[in-house]
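Worked Example 4.2. Consider the chain below.
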Amino acid sequence: MTTLLKVDALSKSYRQQGFWLNRKSTTVLSPISFSVEAHKTLAIIGEAGSGKSTLAKILVGAERPSGGSIYLNDQLLKKGSFKHRCQHVRMIFQDSGTTLNPSLTILQLLDEPLKLNTSFDVNKRKELIRTTLQKVGLLGDHMNFYPHMFSGGQKQRISLARAIILQPQVIILDEALAALDPSLRSQMINLLLDLQQQMGLAYILISHNLGIIRHFSDDIMVLSQGKVVESGKTLEVMNNPQHKVTQKLLMNQNFQLKPNRKTR
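Applying the procedure from the previous section yields the following structure tokens:
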């Protein structure tokens, strides 16, 4: 299996305010390493403040790491390579409604990344937008609508269309399924799994919902205070959690293991 994303000793620290000689450094992410393969999903769980969101922001380029390296297809992602990273590493957030500009049509929203990252002409961009909307279960003519004309589930599909339109390799799902009701959530998970198989995507799933983790992920990584305290195959970790943080997370949701439908 092809490794798409490799993280090597990635870390993040912040300098506290004060005189420069007495400034203290707060570590929010200790050096961590992991990799994600094509067609696979890595779940990241942990309590609030464990470093999950910081890690996601670093991976997508919204934060700069204090140390370590990120490799995409064995190629080092260098500082300032925002266009390359934007094309190949995309993120979907929890509240899709707030990330869609209400004054723009769906055509304009999806056309923006194409204008910035491709040399396609107007007709080719429009056709790609149409086929991408159809790929996520919407109509091609929805490109002429505004965000307020869609339901929450449809808005999340639009966010997914925006994420995949540049043919990325890695998609980060930051609580992207949390706001959906159970039936819409199941539809979205099935859509994501279908797209993963079609496009060879690697997903990084950040979620507090262990039911989603169980159903959706292949591997799991548990963070606590910026450190990886446990990792491995999702079913193995959930069947036999070794660290007290993992045990606490499972206990808090009164979690009972069921078969993972994604197991191949």
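Strands lie at 3-15, 25-37, 41-46, 67-72, 75-76, 89-92, 170-174, 202-206, 219-224, 227-233. Residues 182-199 form the longest helix (18 residues). Compare this with Example 4.1 before moving on.
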